[in-house]
Design brief:
The complex is a heterodimer. Chain A is of the alpha+beta class. Helix content of chain A is 56%, strand content 17%. In chain A, strand 6 and strand 7 form a beta hairpin. Helices cover 52% and strands 16% of the residues of chain B. Classes of the chains: A alpha+beta, B alpha+beta.
Chain lengths: 440, 388
């Protein structure tokens, strides 16, 4: 009974010894970890046991080159985990930030009640007029409301990558679209002329689809259009093609019906007021949201899916890497068994041995983590990809390998190193000296 | 086979090390199984064999635009067309947007084109006779715990009703299922009657349809028939694009992401690491056993036998861990599909995945075993026995 309880106690201690540090490592901010490092350094410099730990660690680290093959298992294994994890999370972050940077708190988008996305929505001309006359809409110097009646249609064009048809969003915008979205800059050519069959293309759309160079013409619904410019908005509008709402509407036989009205508010505090005013107006049936809320909500599902995929893959790979690290470190401890036993025979305690093995593993892990993170950064930072957004059209986004992601990759690496080193470290400290001395 | 005992004993000479290596291999192949199921789900989306004799005609501009209903008799008249039907995307939401599933209004003869959707005859009849009737796939019914006779309210996103409300009520009169487990994803759909759709609709949709589904008389004549159909509306303001169901879905899926590339990159990283890791284990194992191998040679084992023994050991190591890993991924996939439903992009783990996995296990086993095995083969007995 007593031995059973002791064993149970040992297992529980081990679990706590694993879970708590891993939790601390992955959750704590960088400065806390830095502080822990400083404490460790002080301990090593100032106390006797610490000094012992330092000298044992030095021996361990300087002998790594003799165990290059097996040590590289730890490094490469963890580099793989961190690289894949950082790349997948960077994909999620890139998609999220592209849609998050779209829209602001002081512009609103009005669509037909219940329609969720612009492609589903239909707003007739009378409604559009009522909406743009709301008191909370900002007026420009000429005294006109900054409201853009917009028509979103989807059209298919051959993709540059594989020649297969991809969907691109064609957005008809009103004359005030430029005041509404001052972030939109022309980077090539000129703006389209209202009333003409002219189009300007977003920077990403141009990179994604064929035949969108300035000056080329495009057949849309049987009519010939000319590309006259390229714009950069720095957000998801870059994946769109813009033209004049009225001309787009007549090409697609939409009559006076449009998809949405986007408007600039006098201030962002007036959102509640305009929402209340428009949704209770008996003449119209509309939903009102800030453009930021509208685009945020579009990114949620896909971002979530990629994150779950990334973390699942990361965890499974991490489990594999932990066993790899365990193998390596058990082997390392076994080859040094005699040396460790000698140290303990001349009076070293168990703690310095444990600490030294742990530090050695975590250094290898850190190296692997840095390698993986660096690779992910070198290959995937700003790597562009695209997916189908909620308007059934391509949204182009760039992977974002941010410092936070790199940091979280490193903490994963340290956590894996910690678990992989702990058990061999304890084994090293517990081998009876007499047995250890006889080891080859 | 007679040396199996010997190989087995060698493998478990160091139990902890072998166990850890096995667990690493297991993790790698668990991941392989899961990711390959994801990849297959996307690849299968366009891969229904039953759909080979069907074409779909969408607007050439974009599949979100509608086509005139006047095309129906003209498509019907194209030689090689056995039957034509039509449908329209409805885009209704059940309770909240995250409960997404496809729901479509279909013409009376639409189901005749899809014999692979199996449903009892009386439910088929009830669907025809109930104006507000709807049928759903079995997986979808299971997900929302619907049973026959339930009222299902959908919130319209595109089509408000005549009275201006967005709520459409449907009566569940039929539940269909698909036999091929690979195509279970097709059960995540709801159909209702075209008549109800256009009579209760605020918009005048009677003159337009979303797309046409066409059954071919002879599946080998798909290309000329598709061209003839597109010719009907060439140079009009509603040009069409007719293609096989498969190529339509493939093009659609390719727009989501290059799943093959992502999965390939992850698996590349995983297997590279795995080769290094098991390679290291095997190298250690052989290094430790040099004297033993020398003894084997002394008692008459040939060089080739020693080579074979070491290779067999590493292949066995990969097979043990790999089979367990793939089996585990099968359990996980089944559990996920049972709990979350077939909406997940996860294909069931089938024979082709097993085959690929087994091939990889043997291949990696041979690769990681090669160097240590050659080393074992080249041992000179005298040197090895004297520990040189």
């Amino acid at each position: 009974m007593g031995s059973f309880m002791r064993r149970l106690g040992l297992v529980l201690t081990m679990i706590v010894a694993v879970v708590v540090p891993v939790w601390v490592l992955t959750q704590s901010p960088w400065w806390l970890i830095l502080a822990m490092l400083v404490l460790l350094a002080l301990w090593m410099a100032l106390t006797r046991v610490g000094q012992q730990a330092w000298s044992v660690t030095k021996v361990g680290i300087t002998t790594i080159p003799q165990r290059l093959g097996s040590s590289s298992v730890v490094v490469v294994g963890i580099a793989g985990v961190v690289g894949v994890l950082v790349a997948l999370l960077a994909m999620a972050a890139g998609f999220e930030s592209t849609l998050r940077e779209t829209g602001t708190d002081d512009t609103v988008i009005v669509m037909r009640a219940g329609s969720q996305t612009e492609i589903n929505s239909g707003v007739d001309h009378d409604t559009a007029v009522v909406v743009s006359q709301a008191a909370q809409v900002l007026h420009n110097a000429g005294g006109q409301p900054i409201a853009s009646p917009e028509l979103v249609v989807v059209t298919s064009l051959p993709k540059k990558s594989d020649g297969l048809d991809g969907n691109v969003e064609l957005r008809g915008v009103g004359e005030h679209a430029w005041e509404l979205r001052p972030n939109v800059k022309m980077i090539e050519g000129r703006k389209f002329q209202p009333g003409l069959r002219e189009l300007i293309t977003g920077k990403s759309a141009k990179g994604q689809f064929r035949n969108l160079e300035v000056g080329s013409s495009l057949k849309l619904n049987g009519q010939l259009w000319t590309i006259v410019g390229v714009f950069d908005s720095g957000d998801s509008h870059n994946s769109e093609i813009w033209g004049d709402t009225d001309v787009v509407g007549s090409t697609y036989r939409r009559g006076n019906s449009i998809s949405s009205v986007s408007m600039r508010l006098t201030s962002k505090d007036s959102f509640e007021a305009i929402k209340a005013a428009l949704t209770t107006d008996p003449r119209i049936k509309v939903d009102v949201s800030t453009t930021r809320a509208y685009y945020n909500q579009q990114s949620e599902a896909i971002t979530q899916a990629i994150r779950v995929l990334g973390i699942t893959v990361g965890i499974i790979m991490a489990v594999g890497a932990i066993f790899g690290a365990l193998n390596t470190m058990y082997a390392a401890v076994a080859t040094r068994a005699r040396e460790i036993a000698t140290l303990r025979a001349i009076g070293f305690r168990g703690l310095p041995v444990i600490v030294s093995v742990l530090i050695e593993t975590m250094l290898l892990a850190l190296l692997g983590g840095a390698l993986g993170a660096a690779l992910a950064w070198a290959i995937f930072d700003n790597y562009t990809a695209s997916t189908l957004g909620s308007n059934f059209s391509q949204v182009v986004f760039a992977f974002k390998v941010s410092p936070e992601l790199l940091w979280s990759g490193l903490t994963w690496a340290l956590a894996i190193g910690f678990i992989g080193g702990l058990f061999p470290a304890v084994r090293a400290a517990r081998i009876p000296v007499t047995v250890g001395l006889r080891e080859l | 086979m007679k040396y199996f005992h010997l190989v087995w004993a060698a493998l478990f000479r160091r139990k902890t090390r072998t166990l850890f290596t096995l667990l690493s291999v297991l993790a790698a192949f668990l991941l392989f199984g899961l990711l390959d199921c994801v990849r297959m789900a996307f690849a299968n989306a366009g891969g229904s064999i039953t759909g080979a004799d069907r074409l779909v005609t969408f607007s050439k501009v974009s599949f979100t635009l509608s086509l005139p209903k006047s095309l129906l008799p003209r498509i019907q008249a194209v030689p090689g067309v056995a039957e034509v039907s039509y449908a329209n995307w409805f885009g209704g939401i059940y309770q909240e947007p995250k409960n997404f599933f496809a729901n479509e209004a279909i013409a009376p003869n639409f189901l005749d084109l899809y014999p692979e959707w199996l449903m009892p005859e009386e439910q088929r009849k009830a669907f025809k006779e109930t104006r507000s009737g709807a049928i759903v796939g079995e997986s979808l019914a299971k997900k929302f715990h619907w049973k026959l006779g339930d009222k299902i309210p959908l919130q319209a996103t595109i089509f408000p009703r005549k009275d201006g409300s967005n709520t459409w009520d449907f009566d569940l009169v039929g539940i269909f299922h698909v036999r091929d487990p690979k195509l279970k994803a097709q059960e995540n759909i709801m159909f209702f009657n075209w008549e109800y759709f256009y009579e209760a609709n605020q918009f005048n949709v009677g003159a337009n349809v979303g797309w046409y589904a066409i059954k071919l008389a002879d599946r080998s004549r798909a290309d000329p028939v598709a061209q003839a159909i597109d010719q009907l509306s060439a140079d009009s303001d509603h040009e069409t694009k007719t293609q096989s169901e498969q190529s339509f879905t493939t093009a659609l899926v390719s727009q989501f992401a290059n799943i093959g590339l992502i999965v390939g990159a992850i698996m590349g990283a995983v297997f590279f690491t795995l080769v290094l890791l098991t390679g290291n284990t095997m190298a250690q194992a052989v290094r430790e056993r040099v004297p033993e191998l020398a003894v084997l040679k002394t008692i008459g084992f040939s060089n080739q036998s020693v080579l074979g023994l070491v290779l067999a050991e590493s292949v066995l190591l990969l097979l043990l861990g790999g089979v367990l890993g793939v089996a585990l991924s099968g359990v996980v996939v089944d559990a996920a599909r049972a709990n979350v439903g077939d909406n997940l992009p996860l294909a069931p783990l089938d024979g082709s995945i097993w085959l690929r996995a087994l091939g990889l296990m043997v291949l990696i086993g041979l690769i990681v075993g090669a160097l240590p095995a050659v080393r074992g083969m080249r041992l000179r007995i005298v040197d090895a026995l004297s520990g040189r």
